[in-house]
Design brief:
The two termini are 39 Å apart. The radius of gyration is 20 Å and the shape is globular. α3 packs across α5. By secondary structure, it is an alpha+beta fold. It has a 4-stranded antiparallel beta sheet, with no helix packed on it. The longest helix has 14 residues. Helix content is 23%, strand content 11%. The chain is built from 5 helices and 4 strands; from the N terminus they run ββββααααα.
């Protein structure tokens, strides 16, 4: 059985149609195009660390752990020591890019407590975490789980 997934004007037909490969059909053309190079199935599951309960407040928008990818928010891999707004490929707000922050435990503590107070104009829509103990646990988790291979 084939599935049709719509991306704008193109439908991707996946499944048995092309021996398990992928064919693309545009609405205008109505013709199949060859499957793209590379594997037909990509593992889209975030790293296991993303599902840790301590990371739950962040996991809606961020991934963490080896192989973390950008989602609604940037990947938090190797965050400690990184200058804010500098992860290649993520469209940070002007406010974040010009904040002058470098992520360390203290900066993260203040930011997680109240993102809009620390970086007015950030696009991060998170009200903040009031509990200092919960913030410290999250920061320790980010520091450990976010360390690259």
């Amino acid at each position: 059985m084939s599935r049709i997934i719509w991306f704008g004007m193109a439908a991707v037909l996946a499944g048995a149609a092309v021996g398990g490969g992928i064919a693309v059909r545009t609405q205008e053309q109505g013709a199949a195009m060859p499957p793209p190079d590379g594997p037909a199935v990509v593992n889209a599951r975030p790293p296991d660390a993303t599902f840790d309960p301590v990371f739950e407040p962040c996991a809606h928008c961020h991934q963490i752990g080896s192989g973390a990818r950008m989602a609604t928010g940037p990947a938090l891999e190797n965050l400690i020591g990184r200058k804010a707004g500098t992860l290649d490929g993520y469209p940070f707000s002007d406010a974040m890019r010009s904040s002058g922050l470098t992520w360390d435990r203290g900066t993260l503590d203040h930011f997680i407590a109240s993102p809009q107070s620390v970086v007015p104009g950030t696009r991060m829509i998170y009200a903040g975490m009031d509990d200092p103990g919960q913030r410290q646990g999250l920061i320790e988790f980010i520091a450990k789980a976010g360390t690259g291979p």
